[in-house]
Amino acid sequence: MSEETVVSDTPVLTTSVAASAAHSRARALQHTVVYLLSRVGQGLFVLWAAFSLSFLILYALPSDPVSIMLNQSGEQSVVDQQQVAALRAQYHLDEPLPVQYGIALWSALHLDLGRSIQTGQPVAAALVKALPATAALTFLALAVSLLAGVGLAMLASLIRLRWLRDLLLGVPALSVSLPTFWIGLLLLQGFSFGWHWFPAMGNQGLASLVLPALTLAIPTTAVIAQVLSRSMAATLQQPFVEVLRAKGLSAARLQRVHVLHNAAVPVLSLSGVIVGNLLAGSVVTETVFSREGIGRLAQGAVSTQDIPLVQGIVVLAAAMFVVVNLLVDVLYPLIDPRMSVARSGVGR
After folding, report:
1. In Å, what is the CA distance from 191 to each residue of 133, 183, 184, 188, 212?
2. Across the chain, where does the E strand assignment appear?
3. How do residues 35-69 score in pLDDT, each as one tens digit?
4. Distance CA 198, CA 195 (A)
5. Strand partners, 225
6. Integer Cα distance of 20 and 22 in angstroms
7. Cα–Cα distance measured from residue 275 to residue 139, given in angstroms and rounded to the nearest whole number
8. How do residues 185-212 score in pLDDT, each as one tens digit?
9. Structure letter (DSSP) for residue 259
10. Which domains does the chain have, with CATH numbers?
11. Long-range CB contacts for residues 264-267, cutoff 8 Å, separation at least 24
């Protein structure tokens, strides 16, 4: 082969490699878009299932929401049957079950969640009014849980004394077993009634958020610490850790920069479940601390069988769960690039 032939073939080879790389990137992008669209479709199915199941469960309850509304005082009194019939017609409660479901679903598809049977207020307006207080409580509890859970897991992994490490890792198991309302009552007794550091109830400023957030954060911290400590222990057995140790990397830097980064994937996978648990725990927590929010709204709606309001709360909780999981799917490749390769089908 002559020198001229080798030189002339080089640009062709470079162009071929560039074209192959561009094709791989395009294929990876296509698979990523298809994957995200499939996840959006699954999220929409979850919303539909949550709406449908809540509708069927509420319909199966033996009591009548209109009768409950007209007897809110709890006294046995004569109820005007014409008024009852008018209210049932207004909320389509006199229609057969399939008709009620069809009307409710069609309205929900148009972002109309109906009106509260108890107050007559639009459900969407009630949710918008109550959501900020619960969102602030949830995200503060999540932030405290992440900081405390990561700190506890890292501290346990750095400790060489086995008995002390086992003691630290035993704290999360104890915290998970404690009922949320009991934790709240203990915090109230100590920090509100005993030392008067924080208000016992209400939504007055940041101080009123501290105890409710700690009530939600303590069990969640335990879950994060348990999962992360086990993941970090497995990551420490990986060959790359031994290589970094041989290079003289300090234990603290190794944990903070390399081990924690690789061990965070299981915790990220639990994000949707953690947010769901925090939202569920807010019902009890907001009741214990007399806070206005989605939790108190849900408690009142269930006790009065306010079907549109309960459905709105269920759909909102399901929507937040779906959004969190979609965000997790987007963040996965940023934390672990191998996830992006696996999803894109590269190498198959």
Report:
1. 21, 12, 10, 6, 12
2. none
3. 778 888 888 898 899 888 888 887 777 666 777 66
4. 8
5. none
6. 5
7. 9
8. 888 888 888 887 888 777 777 888 888 8
9. I
10. 123-303 (1.10.3720.10)
11. 264/228, 264/231, 264/335, 265/231, 265/332, 265/335, 265/336, 265/339, 266/227, 266/228, 266/231, 267/149, 267/224, 267/227, 267/228, 267/231
Q: How far apart are CA 126 and CA 131, in angstroms?
A: 9
Which two three-digit tokens encode residue 55?
């509708």
Count Cβ atoms below 10 Å from residue 66 Cβ, excluding itself.
21
Q: What is the DSSP string of 152-202?
A: HHHHHHH---HHHHHHHHHHHHHHHTS-HHHHHHHHIIIIIIIS--S-SSS
Q: Find, among 52, 105, 44, the residue nearest to 322 by Cα.
A: 44
- The pTM of this model reads 0.73
Dihedral angle computed from the Cα positions of residues 39, 41, 47 and 51, in that order, rounded to the nearest 10 degrees: -150
d(CA 28, CA 41): 20
Q: Tokens 């005082």 sit at which residue?
A: 73
